[in-house]
Every structure is written in C-alpha cells, then in structure tokens.
Amino acid sequence: MRRQLPPVFRALGNHNYRLWASADLVSVTGTWMQVLGLNWVVLAMTGSATSLGISVLLSTLPALLIGPWAGALADRFPPRRIVLIAESTHLVLALLLALVVWKGLPVGAIYALTALSGLVGTFGGPALGRFASQVVPRNDLGNALAWNSIVNSIGRVLGMSLAGVLVAVASEPLLFLVNAATFVAVIVTVLVMRAGEFYPIAVSDPELAGVRAGLTYVRGQRALLLLFALGFVLSSLGRNYQVTMAAMAEGPLGAGAAGYGVLSSVFAVGTVVGGVVTARFRELTIPLLLGAAAFTSVLQAISGFLPNLVGFAAMILPIAAGAVLIDTAKSTRLQLDSDEGMRGRVLAVQGTVAAAAGAVGAPLLGWLAERFGPPQALLVAGLTTLVATAAAAAAFRSGRQQAAEPVAATPVPATAGS
C-alpha cells in the first residue's frame, strides 16, 4: 500500500522503496568501510601509492571493457534474479578478502579479488538500476534517485567514519566481515519485498537482445548521445574534485592535510544538501540539468581565485549540491527517455562513460594543476564545461525545433482518371 507523503518524500511512500532505501544505506556503509580498509591494506603492504592506483584501476577496468555486455544481460533477464546472484557473489568475495588479509597472503591475491569484485559490480550495476526502477512508479523515479544520492552520501560518511574507528580498535579483516554482513541484509530485503507492489518494466525482445542491438539503438537516439557527451565532459573536468581540492589545499590555500579533510567534509555535506534540493523537484528536466551545469561551471571557474580556505569551501558546497542535481537529472532522463527493453544497456553505457571520464579527467586535471597552477586548472575546467553546456543546450534546442517542424506533404501525381 502506498502512503501519502509530502512531495519531497513521495518515493518513500512506496513500501518496497522504503525497504530498498534502508538496505541501500546499510550496503553503501559497508562498501565504503571495505574501500577504506582495502586502500589502507594495500598501502601498508606495499608502501606504494602506485600499487594503490593499480588496485583502483583493477576495480574499474571491467566497466570499461565489458559494460555493454552487462547491460545486455540485464535487459534480457529479470533484474531481481541478477541482483540476488551479484549480491551473493559479493558476499563471498568480501569473506575471501577478510581471509586473505587475515592470513597475510601476497598483494596479488588482493588484486585478483579486487578485479573479481569489479567484474561482479559491472554485471550487477545495470540490473540494480533496472530493479530500483521497479520499486517506484515512473513518476517517482526522479525523487527516488535523489533519495538514493542522499543515502549514498550518508552511507559514505558513516562507512568511512566507522572504518576509522574499527581499524583503530580491531583489525582490517573485520571491515570486510562487516561488509559481507551488509550483503546479507540486501539479499534478505530483496527476498521479503512485496511481489505484488513491483512496477514491472519490459525485458528485451530476443531479436533486439545483445550488445550490437543496444549500441545501434543508442546511436539512433540523439538526446541520449548528447547526455552521454555532456556527462563525459562534466564528469571528467567538473567532478574530479578530489584532485583539485587536494591541489588547492596543498598549494595556494596552504591548508595541508587538515584543510583537505575540511574540504572533503564540506563536499560531503554539499552532496546531502544537493540530494534534498533535488528531491523537492517534481520533474527533473533537461533545462534544469543544463541550468545546474552552467551554474556549477561558473562557480568552478572562479573558485580557485578566492583568497582563503573559508571562501573556497563556500564555493565547494553549492558545487557539490549542483553535481548531485546534475547526475540525478541525467540518470533520470537516460532511464525515462529510453525504451524499457534497452534500459540496462543504456545504464551500462552510462557506467562506461563515467569510468572513462574518471580515468581521463583525474590525470588531466592533475597535469593542469602542476603545469599552470590549481586556480588556473579550475578556471580552464570550469570554462570548458560551461562551453560544453552551452553547446549541449544549443543542440537540444535544435533537436526540439526539428521535431516540432511539420512534415511537408508529398505531392501525389495526377492520374489519367483524375
């Protein structure tokens, strides 16, 4: 039964979504506990930041290489079944990580399990996206995605905070055991959801299944291509604030590690604020997305020239809030504006684009900061994303005008009997 709640909470009026949001909070908290524990273990074992980078690369590489195949699988089979298989596999891998760390096995074993976790996550991601859209009606999807952002932000803060405490009082293997327990919570939640309250979405017809059919579909959708292109630019140059915040804290601001911690906390608060603001919109439209992108681009361009840590932090908060609004609006439009039978492949392409943007943007911003200085890097990145946003706005406007133009009737030649 659906509860009547204020518009900002409307997704939470769905029984299955309340269960899903609760399970997601538990799962995200466990995931960030494992991320922190894994990074710490690799760094402690090797003493090398490069080794840590390899671990991160191995976790994201599957999304770059086989994302479309994962999306095709999600479109072909019921997503609930894939979610249960993926979560069960993650549980086993978390237990194996705990065993490997406890036994002090070589770092190669950790690399192998990290790669396997990335592989399972790649196949589970599109199915999770499809499944999450089944626990709310279509009109509530944008609100649900906004609350997902809030849950992810809170879970990240909780996970990293709890991980720091547990590592201090216990040991790293406990982090992986706790993460394994969170997968149990997700599996149980999925199993107890009310089957009669799901909002089914179509699976792909056999003749339209497969990667090639999905890519052909995406190539034929102008709006989707524009969203992917804009998302790549915004994610690569406008989302890698872990790089630019560190460069600003260490360089012009002279705030060091403590300042970087403050900025990271402000950024986390901004993502929560952004989720709440996004949840208040009844509809997440393309103009709203473009307006948020232009606003954050301008803030980014001027943020590096503010005189102190307080001023820079004051810019970081609305930028983080705007990023959540942009990402939620983009994800909502990608799902609602694509065929249901293609949604898994569309989400998989989105994941691949995001992974590629991170792989390109982080080193590029780092190089710009080293070569020209952090303020100049932020200026160049902000102006670039602003130009990309303007170009996307013009392209969307052109597409709407073409769609609105009446099709001229084709003259019918006169026949002898006319």
Give the helices and strands as they follow along the chain: HHHHHHHHHHHHHH
**Strand residue percentage:** under 5%
How many E strands? 0
CATH class of the largest domain: Mainly Alpha
Shape: globular
From the alpha carbons, calculate the radius of gyration and give it in angstroms. Answer: 23 Å
Tally of individual domains: 2
CATH topology of the largest domain: Growth Hormone, Chain: A
The SS-based structural class is mainly alpha
**CATH H-tier superfamily of the largest domain:** MFS general substrate transporter like domains
Contiguous uncertain segments of 5+ residues? 408-418
Largest sheet: none
In angstroms, what separates the terminal alpha carbons? 64 Å
Number of helices: 14
What is the share of helical residues?
over 70%
Overall pLDDT metric: 85
- The CATH architecture designation of the largest domain is Up-down Bundle
Main location: membrane
Transmembrane segments: 21-43, 49-70, 82-102, 108-132, 144-168, 174-193, 223-241, 253-277, 309-326, 347-369, 375-396
GO molecular function, one term: transmembrane transporter activity
Membrane topology: Multi-pass membrane protein
Explained architecture:
It is a single chain. The protein has about 425 residues and is an all-alpha fold. It has 2 domains: about 1-205, MFS general substrate transporter like domains (Growth Hormone, Chain: A); about 215-405, Growth Hormone, Chain: A, CATH 1.20.1250. It is about 80% helix and about 0% strand. It has helices at about 15-45, 50-75, 80-105, 105-130, 140-170, 170-190, 210-220, 220-240, 240-250, 255-280, 285-305, 310-335, 345-370, 375-405. Helix 4 (about 105-130) crosses helix 13. Mean pLDDT is about 85; it is low at about 410-418. One of its GO terms (cellular component) is plasma membrane. Keywords: Cell membrane, Membrane, Transmembrane, Transmembrane helix, Transport. It is found in: Cell membrane. It comes from Saccharomonospora marina XMU15.
